[in-house]
Write a structure and sequence with these properties.
Layout (H helix, E strand, L loop, with lengths): L3 E5 L1 E2 L2 E9 L2 E5 L2 E3 L6 H13 L1 E14 L2 E13 L19 E8 H6 L2 E2 L1 H9 L8 E5 L4 E4 L1
Parallel strand pairs: 1-7, 4-9, 6-10
Antiparallel strand pairs: 1-5, 2-3, 3-4, 3-8, 6-7, 10-11
């Protein structure tokens, strides 16, 4: 199973997320997707930001290394260096809500709102709220079907 890579974009008290409407559920993900063959996780994060958000980003540092159902997920703190928010042209961005894939909508939400919403991974959202990203440490956490454990 290939790795997933995503970006964490912050703007004062807001965080950029992808709102997903799928199978009657609304949830949020950090922008990102699968790492393609021959691509580094950092390159994938930059590509996914362009495809999903319409933004050019510069990676600052790895903030989280997650294991979810046997799949590695890397999340990078990034800053916007160009582009226009909401103009992503990735194939998934034109997916209608009633499709098997569901819809993808880039949104800025307050961190307070994100704490009350179904944001995945939740632990990363909590770390943003607590200011833990400022520590410079890479957060490490994982989740299995039956349990969740956090490693720092």
């Amino acid at each position: 199973m290939r790795a997933r890579s995503g970006v964490v974009l912050l703007d004062r008290d807001r965080v950029c997320l992808i709102q997903r409407l799928r199978d009657g559920q609304t949830y949020f993900l950090f922008p990102g997707g699968g790492v393609e063959p021959g691509e580094t996780p950092e390159e994938a994060a930059v590509r996914e930001a362009r495809e999903e958000l319409g933004l050019e980003v510069a990676i600052e540092r790895l903030v989280a290394d997650v294991e979810h159902r046997g799949r590695r997920q890397y999340y990078y703190l990034a800053r916007i260096v160009g582009g226009r928010f909401g103009t992503g042209t990735g194939e998934e961005m034109s997916s209608p809500v009633d499709s098997a894939r569901g819809s993808y909508t880039p949104v800025w939400v307050t961190i307070e709102h994100a704490l009350r919403a179904d944001v995945r991974p939740r632990e990363l959202c909590q770390a943003i709220h607590s200011g833990e990203l400022a520590s410079g440490r890479v957060l490490r956490f994982g989740r299995t079907e039956r349990q969740r454990h956090v490693r720092r």
